[in-house]
Backbone:
């Protein structure tokens, strides 16, 4: 049976609106205007044990709301949801014992305490036995390279250090499901790689199911076999990265370094999208012309120093998917 | 149980770290104690009718109250306030703990830690300069200790209710401050309750707030004889039970409609 089942989840927020300016604020005291926002508008998906799923969408699309419903913090207005056989918000205490959650923009560590004391506090809160705790703690310290950070109060950690500690903190009770809400936000390249590497190992070696929300498409490309794209509260796409690309366009890029700088490339099946000096970017549809055929035609006519074929960058794919949705969405 | 104990001791140790805060708090308690003693001195000098308490009794009352202030004053838990405002309450809800018990524990730690540090200096100051002595009888001392512990439980229960109200109001600056002001008057923290007019007394008797300040301190001074300690403790504990139940009920409703601030 699926580990996570979500069916037709709906969540609306009521937001008090204030008119701009002092007069608007005063009027707001007398009479409030409320606006209803549908954060989730019938979201459905299911996730099997051991999957690593990327959950992506623009700001305000409903990603964090979904994660909060799945982790039992928010009660949805309608719909069904089961995680590890439990309804998260009905059985909150038993539910949260079996999941780990990291919000990239917040910390679950105690601000004034040294990291190791936060870990010990979590051991007591989750009732982890000393033997299990010691074993997991040492392993996490080794994997995430935390040894030099353990005695530092959390408020003195850098963002990257804090995120590594937060990841460890979310795993001390060995959860079967891990929700990561923008775990790489604001991190430098090295910290991002460390986080990604750790998440991948966790998923592959331990079989922990991971749901990852992010705006960083490199996270998705590096980690996820499956992506869920959400926009305006509904799932726009659920499938592999390749399926995501195919849904938008099958387009590929051919990048050529020419020997001559001024050579003009003309081909019926490809358009030049960009040109800087010797380098030419061509766009083509592999269903109309196979890459091999196009390359042999061009190399026959021009002296070529180097060339390579690329997929459409994933950022562009997602951007197009969102745009397409906005165009056809009934507003 | 172990989990709540750990949260308690972590919070407790954390509060002991802030030395500068301790010193300024003690200074503030001593200073406002001095002002109140002066006001009462002027009041007793100007009045020629018999008063419900003696001047010496009132001076003792003021100093015992100042020494215990951090233990029994109703406050908004600063911790919880910032948790709700910043949205970090998310992580509180992610713990396999009962949230009311957790907040109640926090509230107890927040009171006990500073009280332990303030008690001796403020008592010492009053003993040196105002002749503050121990309770007149051993029975009175025992009754005072028991009643002060009940006052602590009561203060934590009332403060928890205030903290829970943050789930609706978020800002915690309007209603909460008003309520805290009214409660401190009704508890006897401003003027000892026997000085209130006759017709208010039944209301004050019925309300839970006299259990915070008035009852334990009058047990200390002997104004309430130790023989009457049992009904006092029953009044306090009865209200603790009622307010905890009320808090739990409101909490279970508040967390259902909670909206987490920020993304």
Residues:
């Amino acid at each position: 049976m699926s580990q996570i089942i979500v069916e037709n989840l709906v969540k609306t927020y009521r937001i008090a609106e204030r008119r701009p300016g002092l007069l608007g604020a005063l009027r707001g005291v007398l009479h409030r205007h409320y606006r209803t926002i549908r954060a989730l508008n019938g979201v459905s998906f299911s996730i099997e044990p051991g999957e690593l799923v990327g959950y992506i969408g623009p700001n305000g699309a409903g990603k964090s709301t979904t994660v909060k419903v799945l982790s039992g913090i928010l009660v949805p207005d309608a719909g069904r949801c089961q995680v590890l056989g439990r309804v998260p918000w009905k059985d909150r205490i038993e539910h949260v014992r079996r999941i780990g959650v990291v919000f990239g923009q917040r910390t679950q560590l105690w601000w004034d305490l040294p990291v190791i004391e936060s870990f010990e506090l979590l051991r007591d809160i989750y009732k982890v036995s000393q033997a299990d705790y010691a074993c997991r703690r040492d392993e996490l310290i080794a994997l995430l390279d935390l040894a030099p950070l353990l005695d530092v109060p959390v408020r003195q950690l850098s963002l990257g250090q804090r995120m590594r500690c937060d990841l460890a903190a979310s795993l001390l009770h060995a959860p079967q499901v891990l929700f990561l809400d923008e775990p790489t936000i604001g991190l430098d390249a090295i910290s991002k790689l460390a986080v990604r590497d750790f998440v991948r190992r966790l998923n592959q070696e331990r079989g922990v199911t991971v749901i990852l929300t992010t705006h960083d498409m490199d996270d998705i490309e590096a980690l996820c076999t499956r992506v869920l794209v959400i926009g305006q509260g509904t799932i726009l796409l659920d499938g592999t990265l390749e399926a995501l690309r195919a849904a938008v366009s099958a387009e590929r890029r051919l990048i050529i370094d020419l020997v001559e700088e001024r050579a003009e490339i003309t081909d019926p099946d490809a358009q030049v999208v960009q040109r800087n000096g010797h380098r030419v970017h061509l766009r083509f549809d592999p269903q109309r012309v196979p890459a091999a055929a196009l390359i042999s035609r061009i190399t026959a006519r021009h002296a070529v120093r180097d060339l390579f074929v690329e997929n459409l960058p994933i950022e562009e794919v997602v951007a197009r998917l969102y745009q397409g949705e906005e165009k056809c969405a009934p507003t | 149980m172990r989990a709540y104990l750990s949260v308690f001791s972590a919070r407790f140790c954390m509060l002991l770290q802030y030395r500068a805060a301790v010193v300024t708090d003690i200074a503030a308690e001593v200073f406002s104690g001095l002002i109140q003693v002066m006001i009462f001195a002027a009041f007793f000098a100007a009045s020629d009718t018999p008063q419900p308490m003696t001047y010496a009794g009132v001076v003792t009352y003021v100093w015992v109250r100042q020494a215990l202030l951090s233990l029994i004053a109703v406050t908004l838990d600063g911790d919880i306030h910032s948790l709700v405002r910043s949205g970090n309450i998310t992580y509180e809800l992610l713990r396999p703990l009962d949230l009311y018990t957790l907040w109640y524990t926090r509230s107890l730690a927040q009171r006990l830690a500073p009280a332990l540090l303030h008690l001796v200096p403020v008592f010492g100051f009053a003993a040196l300069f105002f002749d503050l002595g121990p309770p007149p009888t051993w029975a009175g001392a025992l009754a005072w200790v028991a009643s002060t512990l009940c006052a602590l439980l009561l203060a934590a229960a009332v403060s928890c209710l205030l903290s829970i109200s943050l789930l609706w109001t978020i800002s915690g600056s309007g209603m909460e401050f008003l309520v805290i002001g009214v409660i401190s008057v009704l508890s006897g923290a401003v003027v000892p309750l026997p000085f209130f007019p006759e017709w208010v007394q039944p209301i004050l008797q019925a309300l839970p707030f006299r259990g915070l300040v008035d009852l334990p301190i009058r047990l200390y001074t002997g104004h309430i004889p130790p023989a009457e300690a049992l009904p006092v403790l029953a009044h306090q504990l009865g209200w603790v039970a009622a307010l905890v139940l009320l808090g739990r009920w409101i909490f279970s409703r508040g967390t259902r409609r909670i909206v987490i601030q920020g993304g």
About this structure: Residues 327-331 of chain A have pLDDT under 50 and may be disordered. The longest helix of chain A spans residues 189-206.
